[in-house]
Amino acid sequence: MAKKTRVVITGLGICSPIGNGVKQFTTSLKKGVSGVRYHEILKQQNYRCHVGALPALEPAEVQAFTSRYGLVKMKGTGIVYGCMAGVEAWFDAGLSLLDSKSNQAAWESGCIFGTCTNGIDAIDYGIGLVDTGNVRKMGGRTAQQAMNSGVSAYLGGIIGIGNQLSTNSSSCITGVESAMEGVNRIRQNKAKIVLVGSSESSHHNVWGGYDGMTLYDDFYALAKGYNDNPEKASCPMSIHANGLVPGGGGGPWSLRVYSQPVNEAQRFTQRY
């Protein structure tokens, strides 16, 4: 049997309800910080579940990031989460971005980034304009962000990726599938570096379908009974668990061939 090519994770990125950036996330994780909060808009929309977990990004922080990388009229929160975390993972791996004015691309670097419904924010915005007869005010950016592949496309533009650039969607295993697709592409010698992971928008229209989903008897997909005690809502291993807590964020890895020369700044955190 031929020996499999060894693939390693050399970079991590995170945009989460308990911390933006690996350092802040790790600190919060060790302290047992909860990112679940009460959200009034869910009550206004008559949801059963009024709690959720979304990244606590300040508007100035988002503005600084989008301005730095030339992202304009961003409506998709999941795309922003994915891009912020993706850039962190790229830099964490000791990699650099191509000059935006260059006519070259990183031909041996790819990106397979997953999501379920990252475009829902942009779709919601676009529908509002169409229904009020203001379709001409929509602009081209709305269509770009309405597509699930928007997060990969934006990351590819920021980094300068020239290899496979695509998006997968497989329910609760989207991130895992993304990672395995990246590993397979490297093992097939079609790429040397692949940015993988997934992100999701934190929008009430993403969560609506799950709030109304009955699994069996009186058990719903989203947690109920914790609206007055959000921090107790996420208890998957508890006897009192009664549903999922909706959330949003992004978490990517940078993968590469183990045999490639690496500098000391790159960390191997997992092997396949």
UniProtKB/TrEMBL annotation:
This enzyme catalyses: a fatty acyl-[ACP] + malonyl-[ACP] + H(+) = a 3-oxoacyl-[ACP] + holo-[ACP] + CO2; (3Z)-decenoyl-[ACP] + malonyl-[ACP] + H(+) = 3-oxo-(5Z)-dodecenoyl-[ACP] + holo-[ACP] + CO2
| Gene3D superfamilies found in the cross-reference section | 3.40.47.10
One annotated GO molecular function is:
3-oxoacyl-[acyl-carrier-protein] synthase activity
Where do the TM regions start and end?
none
The record's GO CC annotations read: cytosol
Q: Where in the cell is it found?
A: Cytoplasm
Keyword list (alphabetical) reads: Acyltransferase, Transferase
In terms of InterPro entries, this protein maps to: Beta-ketoacyl_synthase, Ketoacyl_synth_N, Thiolase-like
Q: Please classify the protein's predominant subcellular localization into one broad category.
A: cytoplasm
Return the EC number.
Answer: 2.3.1.41
Q: Which positions fall inside the Beta-ketoacyl synthase-like N-terminal domain?
A: 5-251
Biological processes annotated in GO:
fatty acid biosynthetic process
PANTHER family tied to this protein = 3-OXOACYL-[ACYL-CARRIER-PROTEIN] SYNTHASE 1, POLYKETIDE SYNTHASE-RELATED
What quaternary structure, including any partners, is listed in this protein's UniProt entry? Homodimer.
Please give the name of this protein: 3-oxoacyl-[acyl-carrier-protein] synthase 1
